[in-house]
Design a protein that fits this description.
Layout: H1 10-30, H2 37-45, E1 50-58, H3 70-76, H4 82-90, E2 96-99, H5 101-108, H6 116-126, E3 132-134, H7 142-147, H8 180-183, H9 207-211, E4 220-221, H10 230-238, E5 243-247, E6 258-260, E7 265-269, H11 271-281, H12 286-306, E8 311-315, H13 327-335, E9 340-342, H14 345-349, H15 365-384, H16 392-405, H17 417-432, E10 435-438, E11 443-445, E12 449-458, E13 464-471, E14 477-479, E15 484-488, E16 492-502, E17 506-515, E18 521-532, H18 535-583
Parallel strand pairs: 1-2, 1-8, 1-9, 2-3, 4-5, 5-7, 11-18
Antiparallel strand pairs: 6-7, 10-12, 12-16, 13-15, 13-17, 14-16, 17-18
Helix pairs in contact: 1-2, 1-12, 11-12, 15-16, 15-17
Amino acid sequence: MPVTLPRLSLRGGAALLLALGIVAGPALAASGASTSPVARTAVAAAGTPVSFTLLVPLTVRPTATGLIDATTLATYTAPLGMLTRQLDAVIGTPAVIGVDPMIIASIRVLGTDAPASALDWLARLQGLNNEVFALAYSDADLASLARVDALNLRDPIGFDTVIDPSHFGPAATASPTPTAAATGTPSPSPSPTAGNGSAKPALPTSTDEVLDWAYTLQHIAWPADDTLVSGDLSDLGAAGYKQVVLTSTNLSATDSGLVDLGSVQGVVADAGVTSLVREAVSSSDPATLQDALGRLNSALGGMEAVSPGRTIVATLDRHWPLGSLNLSGLFADLGGQASVRTVGLSAVLAGAHPDARLTDEPGDAARTASLRSILAATAQEDSFATVADTPTAITEPRRLQLLSLLAVSWLRGTDDWATQANDYLTASVKLRSSVQIVGGSDLFVGAGSTNIPVTVSNALSVPVTVLVNVSSPSSVLQVQKQNVALKIEPGSSNKAAIPVQALTNGTVTTSVTITSASGVPIGTPDSVRVDLQPGWESVGTTVIIVLLVLIFGGGIARNVVKRRAARRADAPVERSAEAEADRD
């Protein structure tokens, strides 16, 4: 069966060979052979153990929403769950922990709906004596964000859309005591209860309250292995980071666990030692473990011989083993080695930091192109969100989804990140098409003044307000009012009436558009063909008047004729009566 050798740095490889020489030296001397000058020098210099630090990420698989739901949290924090196994592995060890803030946020936003096992897990995390620092939210790859000048997107916007106030007690009153930033000491994490006698936790009123944690180390960036280029360092420094964790293969040769890279300091994870450590802690049987530990001890012993007292940093990757990580066995073995002493990261940060130079790693052009498309879509979403009465109701969940999409674990090559990226872009198009003009039919205008009806639909789960405009390309149709405000409730449609004036006969094709209150175009413009016949109004009036004249005039004439006929019929009778009267 072939033996897989760990990938060591040049100095690490030389140190390992030298260590083997040191071990073989006494045997050669006993047999009468002379040891080499290099070996004799190394033996004389040996005696100061190297300082060893191990960084362990505490993460979970990326989620679709940027949060872990209650059911999954219950599974992860069960006795054999993923998060429980990770926490069990680091308890009682000097490992330095990088925590994904998404885990903390996912528990806190649930309030009383959070599983009891998740609350217990959070309490255990809070009680650890290990040094702890924050990873980027959802363990988003900071190198990827820096590469596309988007480190400003590394934080969540908020959690209001996922917090149910009924699961919380009253909001905690703000304390006037100094903050961690002002005093330089970590502030205590909020209590799981409201602190006012309520059995419910206090209602978070800000993003900071949801994410607040008593981290012992601050301003540390931990991007994916072998992903940094020189331009990323200044961006990370400008974003507030003071140290960045990187592998020795991403750097010029150094014999220190901390180097000065100009804009930031580099916490250097030795690639060879890291490989051996990862193999040892994930070993599933004692023989494999002992073999890995033996090779690790030889490597560390060689480094101690070449550079006594130097600092050595190793890291675990974003991996979720089926079994438990054997960190306790690793540190127990290292504790028995005279050439090694285990320290926290704070000891490394307080030590020497010689200058070093970054060795740019070739980037993935296709991934970078996808990232740029994703960021362009995100910018369009932010503009579109101004259509909502509460824009953060749209932008908050999408930011969480974006950060989850950027998780370091997607870069391991075991998952189809390209499919996830395409799904995100497809969802972006659907989102930005959620508010649309409902296509109208042709309109006949037979009067001088009328209204053009415009119907707008809203497929979002939040109310929106749009400004409706109709544009006429001809002076024969004048639009009397623009920017007609129209509010549409979630999952419904509403209609606006735009007043217009027709000056003469003709046909005009109008353009109908809607914008948000801030003037951002929304949806796709529509057109309405308007047939103008304002002359029909005067013709109709004339016809009615003529009919009225004929009707009333005819009636009057008829009455006149009848009266004249009656008078002629009555005249002979009157004359006869008069004659008879004369004879009498």
